[in-house]
Design a protein that fits this description.
Length: 391
């Protein structure tokens, strides 16, 4: 296929729209449905992310993309019983490593992943398709699909679910271009390989990184490579648990991602896992209720006349003190940043969300202050020397 005509561009008024490759065939083909402009942006960025995650870790990878940034990304580590319950995984599904990766990627920030575009590093299997079938999603890109998976996915959205197949061997040209306001920008494609060598320059008093910590830091950096900048990513046990994307201030990135990481951890608390919902509640309404319940505006779902439409039994208030005590149990979190931290306040905020290892480019005039703050909490920090802006 030389080109693909699109219904419209970013917005309905932006016509005509198409995608094509100069002098060659498109590396992506449409198996089912009709992709949109933003769908393809998410698909192609998501594919690059999962392909790199698998290359770096050796594990199947999945990502959930929304508006050209990942809402979640993960590799295929097994799910604990707590995570299965937290992610609402159907116990009848025999989970494969790829299915575990998808459950983690989709479950980390369920509110942001609503209506996502999925990318998988490996051919989609039946178990992964069974999980996808239950979620609201715009489409998927993968290097292939087994017959059972394809049948399940084609049934989504009354047969209109967008299914794309990517050529896993495709390599883009060394130079890429785009136009803004009629002006053409040209740059070299970002072929930078992120591996353990970028973690060699440890600048803190504490120097030792475990293999799992190295993997989590690499996952954070690879996620950031395909996240709209400025961006910060928290990772634990092979999955992104909080991504702060597209903020003008780095501390706002750190706070936003940190709050998402905190919400991920709070959702594993006995207070949340013990919530009982009314029969027939929609998944999106349930997810929103949980999000509000663990936040500062919990009264919105606990008010008389409201809670009865959501919960089978009225939950007790999840007090600020109880939340603080539970959050204090979250440790061993990895943090990556796409550019240097200019102030130690970013480290202070990261510490509140259980961060113990950090990878960032370094190069701030206040690096000494940032290192000193890490040393105060016994953190390990690497200066990668690599900036990962993405726009």
């Amino acid at each position: 296929m030389k080109e693909l005509a699109l219904k419209y561009g970013c917005n309905p008024n932006q016509k005509p729209a198409r995608v094509y490759v100069d002098g060659g065939d498109l590396p992506v083909s449409v198996v089912n449905g009709t992709p949109g402009y933003i769908n393809l942006l998410d698909a192609l960025n998501g594919w690059q992310l999962v392909k790199e995650l698998k290359a770096a870790t050796g594990l199947p990878a999945a990502t959930s993309f929304k508006h050209v940034s990942p809402a979640g990304a993960a590799v295929g580590k097994p799910l604990s019983d707590t995570l299965k319950k937290m992610y609402f995984v159907d116990g009848s599904i025999a989970l494969t490593p790829l299915a575990c990766a998808y459950a983690r990627a989709r479950g980390a920030d369920r509110m942001s992943s609503f209506g996502d575009f999925i990318a998988l590093s490996d051919p989609c299997d039946k178990a992964t398709a069974q999980l996808i079938a239950k979620e609201v999603s715009d489409g998927i890109i993968a290097p292939g699909y087994d017959d059972d998976a394809l049948a399940i996915l084609k049934a989504k959205k009354k047969g209109a679910y967008c299914i794309l197949r990517i050529d896993p061997d495709y390599v883009p040209p060394a130079t890429e271009t785009k136009q803004v306001f009629g002006i053409t920008f040209e740059q070299g494609h970002n072929f930078l390989t992120l591996d353990e060598s970028v973690l060699a320059n440890v600048v803190t008093e504490k120097k030792t990184l475990t293999d799992d910590e190295k993997h989590d830091l690499l996952i954070a950096l690879i996620v950031l490579k395909y996240t709209q900048s400025n961006s910060v990513c928290y990772v634990k046990d092979g999955q992104a648990i909080g991504i702060g994307a597209g903020q003008q201030s780095r501390i706002h990135c750190t706070r936003l991602a940190g709050q998402k990481a905190d919400n991920w951890w709070l959702r594993q608390s006995p207070q949340v896992l013990g919530l009982t919902f009314v029969d027939g509640i929609k998944r999106a309404d349930r997810d929103n209720a949980i999000d509000v319940y663990i936040g500062d505006e919990y009264e919105d779902v606990l008010a008389e006349g409201t809670w009865q439409t959501i919960f089978a039994e009225k939950p007790a208030v999840f007090t600020r003190e109880e939340k603080r005590a539970w959050l204090a149990k979250n440790t061993g979190v990895a943090l990556g940043s796409d550019a240097f931290f200019p102030f130690g306040d970013n480290i202070e905020r990261a510490h509140k969300s259980g961060v113990s290892v950090i990878a960032q480019p370094g190069g701030s005039v206040r690096d000494d202050n940032v290192i000193e703050t890490c040393d105060k909490y016994g953190m390990v920090m690497c200066f990668t020397g690599v900036r990962l802006f993405h726009h």
